[in-house]
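Reviewers of the previous submission asked for a worked example of the structure-prediction workflow described in the proposal, so we include one complete record here. The input consisted solely of the amino acid sequence. No template or homolog information was supplied to the procedure at any stage.
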Amino acid sequence: MGNRVRRLGGRIVTRGAALLSVVVFIAATALAPGPAHAIDPPVIAPGPPPTGPVVPPNPTEQKSMCGSGAVAPGSQFQQTPAADAMLDYTGAWRFSRGAGQRVAVIDTGVSRNPRLAALEPGGDYVSTTDGLVDCDVHGTLVAGLIAASPSPDDAFAGVAPDATIISIRQNSASFSVQGDSSGGDDPNALTSGYGNTFTLALAIVHAVDLGATVINLSEVACAPVGVGVDDIALGQAVRYAFERNVVVVAAAGNVSAQGLCRTQNEVRDPNGSSADAWNSVSTTASPAWFGDYVLAVGAVAPDGQPSGFSLHGPWIDVAAPGERVTSLNSVGIGLTNATQNAQGELVAINGTSFAAALVSGVVALVRSRFPDMSAADVMTRIKRTAQTPDAGPNVATGYGVVDPVAALTDEVLPDVQGRSVMTGHPIVAAPGGDAESRRALEVVAAVMGVCALLAVLAVVVIKKPRQG
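From that input alone, the workflow returned the following C-alpha cells.
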C-alpha cells in the first residue's frame, strides 16, 4: 500500500512504499525473483462475477491503531502541487469539473472531510463501518486527489472537485482474520492485513450496482510469472463493470524489495512494441493486466520521466504524476505530504496508487463533459490525447502522461482502420450565453468535425496504406 501508516505505541510506522499491494498469498519459496517468460494476455473466464453481502467474508479484528499522515518541514501548501503543475487540471475546470460523476474509491476507506462534501458511504468488507473510516491513510489520500474541493488557505485541490466519491472499504493493514494475525485462513491475503482478490471483486460489482461511473483501484496483486494470481473472479468483475459502461482505473504497481512486485519487467527490445513485451514479462500485476477492461496507470516523476518504482508491462495504458504527492490527511481537516519510515524519518508520498487517482479524476472530467460517451470511447480518448513519447507507446508509460485539457477539447475521430486520430481542432469551451449562441457553436463544431473527417478520407483515397 502506498505509504500506509499506522500508529503503534504512539509512533507512526510506514507500512510500505506508496501502493496498496493487496490480495495474494504466495509461499516464501515462490517469492524469489523469477526469469522472464513469454506469456499471453490473461483470458477472463466466462460467467458472472461473484456477488454477496457487503460484510467481511471472515470475522476480523483490529490488530493495530489507526495512523495519520505527516507534513514535511518547510512545506509551502500555497504553491501549486507538482501534479497540478504538470497536468494543469485546474486549468481544465473551464470545460469540466466532474459534475454528475460518481467515483467509487475501493480502498482502505475514506475519512469524512469538509473538502469532500459529496462523500457517500459504500460499505465495508473489512469491519462493520459504513466505509467512511480510514485507518491506513491511503484511501483518503486517493479520494482527495480525485475530488477534493479547493480552499482559500492553500493551492491544493482534486482533479474533479464536483464529482461524488463513494467510499468502499475493502482492505486494511490494521485488520486481520480474527484470531489469526498471519492471515493464514485466506490463501489470497497478504500476511500483513486483510483484503483479497475475492473481496475486491465483490466490491467492484457492488460499486457498479451503486451507480458508479468511474471505479478507482489503487491496489495490485503481483506475482512472479509461473506462480500465478487467483484473479478469476477479479477479471469477471472488471469485465462486468466495463460492460455496464463503467470506466475502471487501475494502478500499475510498485517495484519494491519488500513487496510482491519485486522484479521489474524489463524490455528486451527498446524499439519493440508493447505487444512484443509479453515475451519478456517476469512479474504479473492484477487487475492492471486486464487491459481490455481497465485503464492501467504508471507513474512519472515531476520531470516527466518514468518513476523508477513504477512496474512496467505491456498492459500499461497511460501515466500520471506519482511522486511528491500532496493530499488530504485521514485525521483532522489538514493536508499531508509525508509519512514516517521505519527509522522515524519523514519521506515523501510516492506511488502508482496516486497516479491512478489523478487519472480517475480526469476520467470524471471527461465523462461529465461528454455524458453520452461509452466507457470504451472515454478510455480511447484519454489514451489518444495523452502526451505520447516520440518513440510511441511503451511499457513504462503507455500512451504517455494524460493531458486533461486535451482530453476535454481535442476532437478524436476513427480512421478507416478502426484506430483513432487527432484532428488538431479543439472543441470550444462550454458557453455561458443563451441557447441560440450554444446552438451556433454546436453547428460550428459539427462543421469542423465533418471537414476534418473529409480531409482524413481524402488522404486515405489518395494514398492507400501498404498491405502486410
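The longest strand covers residues 420-426. We consider this example representative of the routine output the project will generate in years two and three.
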